[in-house]
Design goal:
Layout (H helix, E strand, L loop, with lengths): L16 H4 L9 H16 L6 H32 L11 H33 L2 E4 L6 H15 L6 E3 L13 E9 L5 E7 L7 E3 L9 E5 H6 L9 E13 L13 H12 L4 E7 L4 H11 L6 E4 L43 H7 L2 E5 L5 H13 L3 E8 L7 H11 L3 E6 L7 H13 L3 E3 L6 E2 L2 E9 L2 E9 L11 E8 L2 H15 L10 E4 L3 H17 L6 E5 L5 H12 L4 E5 L16 E5 L5 E2 L2 E5 L6 E5 L5 H5 L1 E7 L3 H14 L6 E4 L5 E4 L11 H17 L1
Parallel strand pairs: 1-6, 8-9, 11-12, 12-13, 14-25, 17-22, 19-20, 20-21
Antiparallel strand pairs: 2-4, 3-4, 3-7, 5-6, 7-8, 10-17, 11-15, 15-16, 16-17, 18-25, 19-23, 21-26, 23-24, 24-25, 26-27
Helix pairs in contact: 2-3, 2-4, 3-4, 10-11, 14-15
C-alpha cells in the first residue's frame, strides 16, 4: 500500500461505488495528532488536583516525548523532503505545509510548557518546600558551599572550546546543554566566542545545601552554577556574556538490510552515523543576543522557524530528578502490585508452581496492577530451572539493562536446554543495548536470531516445551508489552498464560517462521502480521457491519496506542455508517475523525492518561452475542500491519472476556477522568463533575478491581 495517499474504499457486497465513497478529508493529521497527545500529557502537569511531584514529572515526560518526536518524526519528514523521497501523509497535504503546521503547534506547546513550569508547577513546588533557585538569589554562605562542590566535582571535567580561525566551530552533540560564551582579551580588547558543554553524566539539579531537611530543600540548575564560575575557565580574559542553547538532531536509523550480509555490523555503522545527524531544532535562552543567534543559525544551517526561544531553564527533563524526592504526600499513593490470584502459592514460605497453575486454566494478567515479577518473570525462571523443560523460545524487543529475563535464558542454555531468543536489535533507541544482550546470549549458548529481513519482530511471545509423563506439553505467554521488569511497573499491559495445545502449536509454527525459512499462513488462535492480521480484523469489522445491516446487534471496541491505518479506519467508517457502535480507546495518535455526519457519527473516541502509560492493545467484536476478543502487540499503523511481525491471541475464557469488556465500560463512563475526541478534532478533557469535584481516576479503580479479584477468588 502506498502511504502517500489514502486508499479508495472498495464497495462492499450489494453496495454501489457511490455509496462506498468517503470524503477526501476524512483523516486527522498524524503528526498534529501526536502533538495533541503530548498536549494531554501537559494538561496533567497543569492539573492542580494532582500531587505536585507528579505534575513536575509530567513536565519532564512532555519534554522527553517532544525530543523524540523531533528526532524521529520531524527529522524523517525533513530528510524525505531534502532527498526527494515520497513523504507519507494521510491527509494529502504538501510536506512543507505539514512541517509548517508542526512548527507552529510545537512553538505554541513549548511556550505553554515553559509557562506551566514557571507559573504553575514551580510555585506549587515552592509552596511544598521544594525550591529551584538561581545563583543571584543565594547568600554568601550558600555560594561558598556551592563553590566547594563546584571546585571538587565539576570544574575538573569542564572543557571550554574556543571558536576562532584556528579552532573551527565544534561538533555539538544532540540534546546536550551548552553555554555560548563571549569573552574579551583584557590586553588587546578583542572579543572571542567559546562553547562549553554542560556535563551530561552529572545531575542537572544540584542540592544547594545537603544538610537541609527534605521538607525544605533547594536546588540550583547545573548550568547556572557553572555559568557563575566562568572566570576561572578563562584566566586573563573578561567574560562579557553567556547564554544557554541546545540542539536536537536527526537520530532516526535506517538500514538497507538487503544490501548487507551482517545486520549487526550495518546497524553499528548506522548508530555511529546517527550521532552526527543534521540539526532539526535549536532551543535558545530568551536572553540570547542577536549576534549569537545568527552565529548558531549559520553554523547549524537551520531556519529561523526551527529556533525555539524559551525562558530558563531549558530542557525540563531535569525535573525527572525531583521525582526521587522522598515525600510520599507529594506523589501518587503507593501501589504494590498484587500477585494474580491463580499464581499465589499455597503458603507464604513456598513458591508458586506456575506450570501447575497454568495447566489448570488460562490466566489473564493485568500489569502493573498484577505483578510481572510473580507471573511472567517467575514463569521464565521456573522454566530455566525445571529439568523437565526441554526448550524455551522467546522474542525480546526491549528489556532492562539488568534483566532477570535474559539471566533466565542464559541459565537455561547453560543447563543444556534448547533456547531460542529472537532479539530485535532495531528497536528504536534500544539498538546498542540489544546488541550487547544478543552477544551475551550467544556466548552463553542461546540460539540468537534477528528475525526476517525487512521486518521488525514486535510480538511479545514465550513458548516453553515441557516433558510430562513422556508427553510434550506447551506452555505459552502472549502479551501486549515488552519483557522488561522495569517498565512493567509503569506500563499498563495484558498478558495471557496458557497451556493450550492450540496456542502452543501456533507458536511452534510462528517461531519456525521467525528462525527459519518457513512461510506459514494458517494459525488457529493467533492473528499474525503482516500476512493476515489486517485481513482478520477487516473480516471481523465487516461481519459486525453485516449484522447491523440485517438488524442484528453489533459492536466494535478497540484499544490501541495509535490508529492511523487508512484501510482499518475506512472499514470502521463504513461499519459506523451501517449503524455499528464503535468505541476506540487510544492513548496517542488518532487519525479518525469522530462524530462526522454520514460516516462516523457512531464512532466514539476516548483517551485515558495517568500515572501508568496505557499500553495494552485489545480488539473486541460483538459477534452475535458471543464476544470475539483478542489481545496482542499490534497498533493500527502501517508499520505494525505491513512491516512488523505482530501477534494477537483470542481470549476463550468467559471471565477473561468479561474482564476486558468491563475495562471499556469503565473507560467510556461519564464518571471517569478522560479525554473525548470532539467532532472538530479537538481533545476535550472531562475531569470534573457538575460540582467541580475531580472525576474518578480509572487507573486507581483498576487497582481496586485487581484487589477485588484476589479477595473474591480467595473465598
Amino acid at each position: 500500500m502506498n502511504e502517500l495517499t489514502a486508499p479508495l474504499p472498495v464497495p462492499l457486497p450489494g453496495e454501489s461505488l457511490a455509496g462506498a465513497l468517503l470524503p477526501l478529508d476524512r483523516y486527522l493529521d498524524r503528526e498534529l495528532s501526536w502533538l495533541a497527545f503530548n498536549q494531554r500529557v501537559l494538561e496533567l502537569a497543569e492539573d492542580a488536583n494532582l500531587p505536585v511531584l507528579e505534575r513536575a514529572n509530567f513536565l519532564a515526560i512532555f519534554a522527553s516525548n517532544l525530543d523524540e518526536f523531533f528526532m524521529v518524526r520531524v527529522a524523517g519528514l525533513k530528510r524525505r523532503i531534502v532527498t526527494g523521497l515520497a513523504v507519507p501523509t494521510n491527509v494529502g497535504r504538501a510536506p512543507h505545509d505539514v512541517l509548517s503546521d508542526i512548527s507552529e503547534k510545537a512553538h505554541e506547546l513549548q511556550a505553554r510548557h515553559a509557562a506551566a513550569y514557571k507559573d504553575l508547577v514551580s510555585p506549587a513546588l515552592a509552596e511544598a518546600g521544594i525550591h529551584v533557585v538561581t545563583w543571584d538569589s543565594l547568600d554568601q554562605a550558600d555560594k561558598d558551599i556551592l563553590y566547594q562542590h563546584y571546585s571538587a566535582h565539576i570544574y575538573p571535567i569542564l572543557m571550554p572550546l574556543a571558536v576562532d580561525p584556528a579552532h573551527p566551530f565544534p561538533y555539538i552533540s544532540g540534546l546536550s546543554l551548552n553555554l555560548s560564551i563571549r569573552v574579551q582579551n583584557t590586553k588587546t580588547g578583542k572579543e572571542e566566542f567559546a562553547r562549553l558543554k554542560v556535563p551530561q553524566m552529572m545531575p542537572r539539579l544540584i542540592r544547594v545545601d545537603a544538610r537541609e531537611d527534605l521538607d525544605y530543600v533547594r536546588y540550583i540548575a547545573l548550568e547556572d552554577l557553572i555559568a557563575n564560575h566562568l572566570d576561572g575557565l578563562f584566566p586573563g580574559m573578561k567574560v562579557l556574556d553567556h547564554h544557554v542553547f541546545r540542539v536536537t538532531r536527526n537520530e532516526d536509523v535506517e538500514i538497507e538490510e538487503d544490501e548487507t550480509e551482517n545486520l549487526i555490523q550495518a546497524l553499528e555503522k548506522e548508530l555511529l552515523r546517527r550521532r552526527f545527524g543534521p540539526p532539526i531544532r535549536l532551543e535558545i535562552s530568551e536572553d540570547m543576543d542577536q549576534a549569537t543567534i545568527d552565529l548558531l543559525i549559520r553554523e547549524f544551517d537551520i531556519t529561523e522557524q526551527e529556533v525555539y526561544v524559551l525562558p530558563a531553564p531549558l530542557d525540563l527533563r531535569a525535573l525527572f530528578g525531583l521525582h526521587r524526592i522522598d515525600r510520599p504526600e507529594l506523589h501518587y499513593p503507593n501501589h504494590v502490585p498484587t500477585t494474580n490470584v491463580w499464581l499465589k502459592p499455597s503458603s507464604s514460605n513456598e513458591r508458586a508452581d506456575i506450570f501447575k497453575a497454568v495447566a489448570r486454566r488460562d490466566i489473564l494478567l493485568h500489569h502493573p496492577y498484577e505483578s510481572f515479577a510473580t507471573s511472567v518473570q517467575a514463569f521464565l525462571e521456573q522454566a530455566a530451572a525445571d529439568p523437565n523443560v526441554l526448550a524455551i523460545k522467546q522474542t525480546l524487543y526491549r528489556t532492562s539493562g539488568d534483566s532477570p529475563i535474559v539471566a533466565a535464558l542464559i541459565k537455561a542454555a547453560e543447563s543444556g536446554k534448547q533456547v531460542l531468543a529472537l532479539v530485535e536489535i532495531k528497536a528504536r533507541f534500544d539498538e546498542e543495548a540489544n546488541i550487547v544482550w544478543a552477544r551475551k546470549l550467544e556466548k552463553a549458548g542461546v540460539h540468537v536470531v534477528y528475525g526476517i529481513v525487512g521486518l521488525k519482530t514486535h510480538c511479545k511471545l514465550v513458548h516453553v516445551i515441557r516433558e510430562e509423563k513422556g508427553v510434550l506439553k506447551h506452555y505459552s505467554h502472549i502479551g501486549t508489552g515488552n519483557y522488561n521488569p522495569k517498565t512493567s511497573r509503569i506500563y499498563e499491559d495484558l498478558g495471557l498464560l496458557t497451556s493450550s495445545e492450540t496456542v502452543g502449536k501456533d507458536l511452534t509454527k510462528l517461531f519456525n517462521v521467525l528462525s527459519g525459512y518457513a512461510i506459514e499462513k494458517k494459525y488457529k488462535r493467533l492473528l499474525v502480521a503482516p500476512l493476515h492480521l489486517r485481513n482478520g480484523l477487516l473480516s471481523r469489522i465487516e461481519a459486525e457491519a453485516a449484522a447491523a445491516r440485517e438488524g442484528r446487534q453489533s459492536g466494535i471496541k478497540i484499544k490501541v496506542n495509535s490508529i492511523v491505518d487508512e484501510v482499518i479506519i475506512d472499514a470502521l467508517y463504513r461499519a459506523s455508517r451501517d449503524g455499528v457502535p464503535v468505541d476506540v480507546w487510544v492513548r496517542g495518535i488518532c487519525a479518525i475523525k469522530a462524530g462526522q455526519p454520514g460516516y462516523s457519527e457512531n464512532i466514539r473516541v476516548r483517551s485515558v492518561l495517568g500515572r501508568y502509560l496505557e499500553h495494552s492493545r485489545i480488539f473486541a467484536f460483538h459477534n452475535d452475542g458471543d464476544p470475539d476478543v483478542l489481545i496482542g502487540s499490534a497498533d493500527m499503523m502501517h508499520r505494525n500491519l505491513d512491516r512488523r511481525i505482530e501477534a494477537l491471541v483470542k481470549l476463550t475464557a468467559p471471565e477473561h472476556v468479561e474482564q476486558v469488556l468491563d475495562m471499556f465500560t469503565l473507560a467510556f463512563s461519564d464518571d471517569i477522568d478522560s479525554w473525548t475526541l470532539e467532532a472538530d478534532g479537538r481533545w476535550q478533557r472531562h475531569h470534573l463533575n457538575a460540582q467541580g469535584q475531580p472525576l474518578e481516576d480509572m487507573q486507581a479503580r483498576q487497582m481496586q478491581l485487581a484487589m477485588a479479584r484476589r479477595r473474591t477468588n480467595n473465598r
